[in-house]
Amino acid sequence: MAVAMNMNWKEDQEVIEIIKRIKEPFKMTNRAFKAEDTCVTVDGRSIGNGHFGIIAGPCSVESRSQIVDVAKAIELSGANFLRGGAFKPRTSPYDFQGLRSEGLALLRAAKKATGLPIVTEVMAVKTLEDHADDIDIIQIGARNMQNFDLLKAAGQLRKPVLLKRGMSATIEEFLMAAEYILSEGNDQVILCERGIRTFEKYTRNTLDLSAIPVIKRYSHLPIIIDPSHATGDSRYVESMALAAVAAGADGLMIEVHNNPETALSDGKQSLTPVQFNAVMEKVTQLAKIMGKTVG
Amino acid sequence: MAVAMNMNWKEDQEVIEIIKRIKEPFKMTNRAFKAEDTCVTVDGRSIGNGHFGIIAGPCSVESRSQIVDVAKAIELSGANFLRGGAFKPRTSPYDFQGLRSEGLALLRAAKKATGLPIVTEVMAVKTLEDHADDIDIIQIGARNMQNFDLLKAAGQLRKPVLLKRGMSATIEEFLMAAEYILSEGNDQVILCERGIRTFEKYTRNTLDLSAIPVIKRYSHLPIIIDPSHATGDSRYVESMALAAVAAGADGLMIEVHNNPETALSDGKQSLTPVQFNAVMEKVTQLAKIMGKTVG
Amino acid sequence: MAVAMNMNWKEDQEVIEIIKRIKEPFKMTNRAFKAEDTCVTVDGRSIGNGHFGIIAGPCSVESRSQIVDVAKAIELSGANFLRGGAFKPRTSPYDFQGLRSEGLALLRAAKKATGLPIVTEVMAVKTLEDHADDIDIIQIGARNMQNFDLLKAAGQLRKPVLLKRGMSATIEEFLMAAEYILSEGNDQVILCERGIRTFEKYTRNTLDLSAIPVIKRYSHLPIIIDPSHATGDSRYVESMALAAVAAGADGLMIEVHNNPETALSDGKQSLTPVQFNAVMEKVTQLAKIMGKTVG
Amino acid sequence: MAVAMNMNWKEDQEVIEIIKRIKEPFKMTNRAFKAEDTCVTVDGRSIGNGHFGIIAGPCSVESRSQIVDVAKAIELSGANFLRGGAFKPRTSPYDFQGLRSEGLALLRAAKKATGLPIVTEVMAVKTLEDHADDIDIIQIGARNMQNFDLLKAAGQLRKPVLLKRGMSATIEEFLMAAEYILSEGNDQVILCERGIRTFEKYTRNTLDLSAIPVIKRYSHLPIIIDPSHATGDSRYVESMALAAVAAGADGLMIEVHNNPETALSDGKQSLTPVQFNAVMEKVTQLAKIMGKTVG
């Protein structure tokens, strides 16, 4: 049977029986397969099953002082994880492509200074092979949501994967992409909605917050929201961050830059550390009201 | 000049000067034209400028007992306004088209029983001419957002208009549609986001909550959210209602039916009175935390 | 039964039986209801069932010399019908709204000079009541595709209706809108695809030419294409006009202006008479190869 | 300067000067960079610059007899290239993933039997390293259009690349993806439009034929059309194939299966060899009328 052929744990006949009874095409990702919420934990910091996680940091790692300063600032404001791009997917081959392995080293330095686990995007199987050990949570970006070789490779790791929804992926396709990772044996997956492509032009993408209750209904995986990429405008981040908390999200991913005006990428959507601190106060208060543990 | 030609109040030269300096195509709708938030008030109940309004009721008026019972129930739960369709826009000419003037009479009866002002959709200029006096807030539906003759006729009334965003209208087009009403002299306009059309299929439309901060930035008009039509599924209404409050909305429009399973239209997305009461408790609590006056 | 209630010809029990057996929600519009292609004829000029019709003219009627000159030019190039907007749907209330009844009079003058029947948009039931006699083919625009009162009023006329697809209407909704007209007793309906709203920005809309074979399969009504509004750019009109012919369309609607650079609306997408003549030569040749009668 | 850093041919100062003057973000892909149409040739068979190419074959390679039989049939009908998937991108990890290297061997057998060069999709850099020599034209699929590592690796090859448009990619992003390949030194790129994602449900995607004149205006690269994936329905393939020819496309990619009802993937959209032969007769006739050389 097709399902069994692709599972690493074919010894478990009972599991296969459950899977065959699930009517949706996503099986191990399905709440019918596992009723309780999945909680992803790194270094004692958790996302999911009542734990609200906050990932913050710059779009791109640009220099030691930039990433260390931002890491210290967001840690003070209560963020749990540090994000920063070392390998950057850019529409143009002529745009800044990231500091690559040098960027990873700077992220390690920032982790050393703050204790914050690192979330960074990986675009290629080769990068996973070379650098997975230096990363705490592997991010797979929207453009690679259906890069099935990369999904399978990430599924063979035993470390958390943050999977972003493709810009025109349906929720079903999103869960099927997660299924590629789980079916290889890695169930430490965090889903991230970051805006879908529509006709609207006042925001860069359209943030689909209704994905939160839909995914909560169909899947046990944690779902977090990236209001920065979704809106493309720092002025709308607070409003969408609070809405995400109220809608039931398990966390947020927010861009913070110590000097947005000089950022090498996505400056327009980045908060300053001071702005981020203000957002965090409200987010934390609201998350507690919603019954979540923050941090 | 084109602007002057279309304004009823051309005597005011200063206003024209302000309008000419506004760079966006929407002028009187613009926050640059009027800095303070607009508040729409009917019978002492307000929406906007710190007042959070709740409009609830069935998709269609079906019978006297149905509309009166629902009106009493939502009034007990704290709703401020009663909605109910008498003239129904239906994709099929063979579907139930509404009770029309009989439906309006039933809405009046429900108002008499509860004191709740009536919000109901009008699809034609003729209906406005015949029945505007029987309606407290004129609703213009998504399909008629660019029915310019209807917008102009509503602009010539001196009573509130609830304007729904078209299903593929940009925010700019939405504000331009409101401009048609304001430019005729009626500034009592409430905007309503009700989901836009995208490729996603797990929800009927995609609720664009980012429209809230965008509209708050560009316009002084109140903006409310209809989570029922947006998601098309009663199971997602609470989550999206709370998200709307947190995002800064000025109110909600929620479908409630005393027996959703037998509803003549849109039963799947209607809350029961009991479910509505539970949502209202959370919405009211959150709205107060957001600094809004409810009711 | 619902169907019967909405039909003017309820005497025919057999028809109702056919309708009840059609599984799609559109009934009288359905090819299962009427197998042979519908042909719409005005003054001996036909569209549909092998007849390829060409409607051309300016976006807006601007002056006597403009509309008469354009009419003469397009008639020489082989167009069968003259289009020209008198009542203009404009996103902004401050934009040119059309010459209205004066525009209709100018269209009559152009018809007198050339013999070309007139196609013009009507946005309101009142306009139909006042002016239907002056128009040969009533155009209902994309923004009014679900203005059901207007559709019903057009259905009660006994003259052809050109119905444009709404900018985010599915093909099923498009056929249901036509059904409103047919169910009132008027089966002289021409469908017109004019581009749908997508994320793409290099064209104003995305022309959905696959609507041609889909509509040919499901409906007997003629389907024509408007490459001018779809692309919004005169440089792409020839390519899309030829594609429409090859795909099996029953006609074209093309904007032609004697001086596009000074046009009061949509100049960028208008062909000059010389450009139109060149397009017509190729279109005519290709339509004949496709087995159609032109003119 | 960023452009120079990413170019392999930085010795040519004049080229850099031209690139800097091109205002669009795509440079080497731009018609302003190279005025004449690019022609891609394999084994004496050409696509572009007046040569109309036809790529046909099954979605997936399933068996020796299947692929050899289809190859012989399409060769008789006049196709120039054989397509067939060996590495299959599938939404579900439990669906048939392709015969992989065994599939490539079967494609070589079919080439040996017919002389038809092979077009097949590659999803991973590793596959390129292992198997590029066995493939005549490397296909990069819609889901990998922004898999930048794969694009760069394909750019370092010296063999043709068929790049499919992503399902929600703008034309500009599509040309930027091609730019990744050209900027690495490989200018043998064929673009392929295969439908974009919209709200319409009667077709699997919406075929954007207006991409043809837009790309012809902005780029020198050949553009072909895949009506099979675009419509998802074999009944609409002929209509869209003819429309593509009339719109000015440089070729077609059509799915043909000797037994569509038993196909392991995409059977619904596959033509039988007999149907394909009928389409080919019309396509060939029309391409000649459009001034193209077929074969």
From TrEMBL, chains A, B, C, D:
Its EC number is 2.5.1.54. Residues 44-288 form the DAHP synthetase I/KDSA domain. The keyword Transferase applies. It is an enzyme of class 2 (transferase). InterPro entries: Aldolase_TIM (IPR013785), Class-I_DAHP_synthase (IPR052899), DAHP1/KDSA (IPR006218), DAHP_syn_2 (IPR006268). Pfam families: DAHP_synth_1. One of its GO terms (molecular function) is 3-deoxy-7-phosphoheptulonate synthase activity. Keywords: Transferase. The keyword Cell wall biogenesis/degradation does not apply. PANTHER family: CARBOXYSOME FORMATION PROTEIN, PHOSPHO-2-DEHYDRO-3-DEOXYHEPTONATE ALDOLASE. This is 3-deoxy-7-phosphoheptulonate synthase. It comes from Fusibacter paucivorans.
